[in-house]
Predict the 3D structure of the following.
Amino acid sequence: MPKSTIILGAPIQSGTHQPGCLMGPASLRTAGLPETLRALGWQVEDRGDLSIPAQAPQGHANPAVHHLAETRAWIDLLVTQAETAAAACDLPIFLGGDHSMSAGTIPGIARHARALGRPLYVLWLDAHPDLHSLDTTTSGNLHGTPMAYACGLPGFGAYPALEVALDPAKVCMMGIRSVDPAEHQRLIDTGIEVHDMRAIDETGVLAPLRAFIARVQADNGLLHVSFDVDFLEPGIAPAVGTTVPGGATFREAHLIMEYLCDSKVVTSLDLVELNPFLDERGRTAKLLCDLTASLFGRRVLDRQTRSY
C-alpha cells in the first residue's frame, strides 16, 4: 500500500509586515508539488487552503504587536487541523504562509503524538530561532514567536491556552544566524540544541543531524520538520522577506532532506515563509518542491535538468 500525505495550505501573512506570503501555498502547487509526490508513489490528498473569518482588533500591552486576533484565530484553527491531518496520513505537509503557522501546527502534532503515546521531536531549519514572546518582540511580527509558544514558555497569555507543550530538550535548530538578545537568553535558559552556520561550516550538516536523528530513533519519537525558506542561502532562494546572507547551500539542504528520508522518522512537515512576490520566475518554489521530493524519496540519480 502506498504511503499517504495530506497537503494543507495556510495562507497566513498576519505574522509579518511583508505582504506576499499568502500566495505561498498556491505557488507551491503551481510548481507541481502534488504531482511530484504522486510521481514518487505517494498517495496525495490536497485539502486546499484553510481560512479564518474577519477578526475584531485585539490590543496588547506591547504596542508593537499587530494582527494578534488573526494570529490567535489561525492557531486555534491549525491546532485542530494539524492533529486531524496527522492522524489521517503518514506524513502531512503544511504550506505557509509565514512562520506563525507553526504556532498551530506544532501544538497540533504534539496532541497527535500524545494520543499515540510517543514523544515529539522538532527539527527547526531556519535563520531565526523564533523565540520571542509577545512582550519581547520589538517588531511586533508574530512569526518570531512560534517556537517559544510551542515550548510553553511564558509571555503568551493572549494566545490560546496550550494543551501539550513541546519539550525544548527535543528540539534541534540548524542554520541559525540571526538572533535577538531576548531570544539568545531563551536559548541559554531552555538549553535548546542549536547549530548555527559557523558550527555547520566547521562540522558540516550531517554530523549534528545524524546525532539528533539517533536520539529520535532511540526514543521511538515522531519528528516534525519546520522548514523556513530563509534557512537557505538567499542567492538560491530569494523569495523570502527575511533574507539573511550565509544560509544553507543547495547540496547541504538536499543532503539534509535525503538523510531524513533514509532515517524514516519524519512524520510531518512545515514549508513556510515562501513569498512568491519576491521570487525570480518561481525558482524558490521549484527548489522547495525539489527539496520536498528528496524528503519523500527522490534519489540523486533520479534528478532531471531544470532550467530557470
Summary: The mean pLDDT is 96. DSSP finds ten helices and eight strands in the chain. The radius of gyration is 18 Å. Residues 4-302 form a domain with the Arginase; Chain A fold (CATH 3.40.800.10).
